[in-house]
């Protein structure tokens, strides 16, 4: 056999072995890469909601606006009405900022962060609600805005302070209707509130102790997708 042909065959064999080795390495590493990407994406998503909650606190303290910028890998961010909160004759419709990807859903509703997986709801961050000896203080976060963004890219959100309203109520009944009502119920029971649960209407009725004053501050925030 010609020496040149032999060298060529040898190089082809070496190249084939190298390609096979690379393929085997990729097959072994691929799940690790996918797991890392998924983990990174989950951290980015959770970070968006934690930043949003932090910005609401700053806006409540007088800051006019804040912007969030984060990477997107998959899924969909959008704003949607998810319920209402009613105190005395005052009803505030609750709009939530939501992330949805397959069976997973994360939502910022009225100061709380919820995670919903296969219809099971978990409260990741508690709402702005304080109860002491004489008073129950509730910060209702009323979001305004519309729009959505999906797929890969960059998420940019602008939060603008639209002002606030305050109410002092002698009425001792608070009604929360929400897609995440089970998360609200679990939280309120943990805080020793007496509640009545109506699953068919996704409603939690909270009975505030009669000798307490109910103070409600409604913080109005506009959310714009940029």
Structure description:
InterPro entries: DUF7289 (IPR055713). By secondary structure, this protein is of the alpha+beta class. It has one domain. It has helices at 3-60, 181-190, and strands at 65-72, 76-87, 90-101, 104-109, 112-117, 120-125, 129-131, 135-144, 148-150, 153-169, 173-178, 194-198, 203-207, 213-225. Strands 2, 3, 4, 5, 6, 9, 11, 12 and 13 form a 9-stranded antiparallel beta sheet that branches. Strands 1-10-14-8-7 form a 5-stranded mixed beta sheet, covered by helices on one side. The protein is elongated, with a radius of gyration of 26 Å. Mean pLDDT is 83; it is low at 29-37.
Give the domain tally.
1
The total count of strands amounts to 14
Which secondary-structure class do the elements indicate?
Answer: alpha+beta
Succession of helices and strands: HEEEEEEEEEEEHEEE
Major β-sheet annotation: 9 strands, antiparallel
Helix content: 25-40%
Percentage of residues in DSSP E strands: over 45%
Residue stretches low in confidence (pLDDT < 50, at least 5 long) are: 29-37
The number of helical elements comes to 2
Question: Radius of gyration from the CA trace?
Answer: 26 Å
Terminal-residue CA separation: 69 Å
Q: Give the overall pLDDT as a whole number.
A: 83
| Shape annotation | elongated
């Amino acid at each position: 056999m010609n020496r040149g042909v032999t060298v060529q065959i040898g190089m082809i064999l070496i190249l084939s072995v190298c390609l096979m080795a690379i393929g085997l390495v990729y097959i072994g590493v691929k799940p690790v890469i996918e797991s890392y990407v998924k983990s990174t994406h989950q951290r980015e998503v959770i970070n968006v909601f934690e930043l949003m909650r932090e910005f609401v606190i700053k806006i409540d303290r007088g800051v006019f606006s804040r912007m969030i910028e984060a990477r997107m890998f998959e899924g969909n961010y959008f704003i949607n009405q998810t319920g209402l909160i009613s105190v005395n004759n005052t009803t505030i419709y609750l709009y939530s900022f939501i992330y949805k990807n397959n069976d997973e859903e994360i939502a910022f509703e009225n100061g709380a962060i919820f995670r919903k997986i296969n219809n099971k709801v978990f409260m990741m961050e508690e709402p702005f609600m304080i109860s002491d000896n004489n008073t129950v203080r509730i910060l209702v976060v009323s979001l305004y805005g519309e729009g959505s963004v999906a797929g890969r890219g960059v998420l940019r959100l602008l939060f603008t302070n639209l002002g606030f309203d305050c109410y002092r109520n002698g009425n001792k009944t608070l009604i929360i209707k929400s897609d995440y009502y089970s998360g609200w119920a679990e939280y309120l029971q943990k805080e020793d509130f007496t509640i009545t649960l109506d699953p068919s209407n996704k409603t939690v009725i909270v009975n505030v102790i009669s000798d307490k004053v109910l103070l409600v501050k409604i913080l109005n925030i506009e959310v714009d997708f940029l």
